[in-house]
Amino acid sequence: MLLSLLTAIMLIGSSSPVMAKKDDGSQVQPDNYYPRVKIETTMGDIVVELDRRRAPITVNNFLRYVDKRAYEDTIFHRIVPGFVVQGGGYTADFNGKSNFPDIFNESGNGLTNDLHTIAMARQSDPHTANRQFFFNVNDNSSLNPGRDWGYAVFGVIVEGEDIVDAMSEVETEYSIRLNANNVPIEPIIIKKMTVLPPL
């Protein structure tokens, strides 16, 4: 009787949700505070180094999309010269991609929206970032937190700054499909994202 009771307890313990494998991005190179991601686009390759120490929620969220290959075949849909290059949310046909839940805004992490940093896009509500991100193509102090919430920076470009600068200069137009200005006439497509081996 005691043996069967112990066996039952062991079986219950083995199916505990605590034992379940995490799938929120934290499982991607879990011991690496500065993972690097290669972003292959139709204009060239970019490598970003992410700061998991300062922005753990944001970095894990981004890595989750990378791990699921959810950024592949999305576009940079908003380009404002001297300001930002934004993407990750739409296909070349301007169909919106599905999101994981919105994340907490880590804009107060000490990282600022300086030239060639990567940050999360969001709606007017501060905690609405999910999959869209942007590159700063200027020192955008107006996007940093102050009296209001800012936009969470979570890494920096370490290779391909010239590619992002070139993106910021492409010709754009108003898009009826998106009901938005600053949409590139020639789509800039993210072909692939890969987490690079640790340094």
From TrEMBL:
Keywords: Isomerase, Rotamase, Signal. The keyword Isomerase applies. One of its GO terms (molecular function) is peptidyl-prolyl cis-trans isomerase activity. Its EC number is 5.2.1.8. Residues 33-195 form the PPIase cyclophilin-type domain. It comes from the Bacteria. Gene3D superfamilies: Cyclophilin-like. It catalyses: [protein]-peptidylproline (omega=180) = [protein]-peptidylproline (omega=0). Residues 1-20 form the signal peptide. PROSITE patterns: CSA_PPIASE_1, CSA_PPIASE_2. GO terms for biological process: protein folding. PANTHER family: PEPTIDYL-PROLYL CIS-TRANS ISOMERASE CYP38, CHLOROPLASTIC. PPIases accelerate the folding of proteins. It catalyzes the cis-trans isomerization of proline imidic peptide bonds in oligopeptides. Belongs to the cyclophilin-type PPIase family. This is Peptidyl-prolyl cis-trans isomerase. It comes from Alteromonas marina.
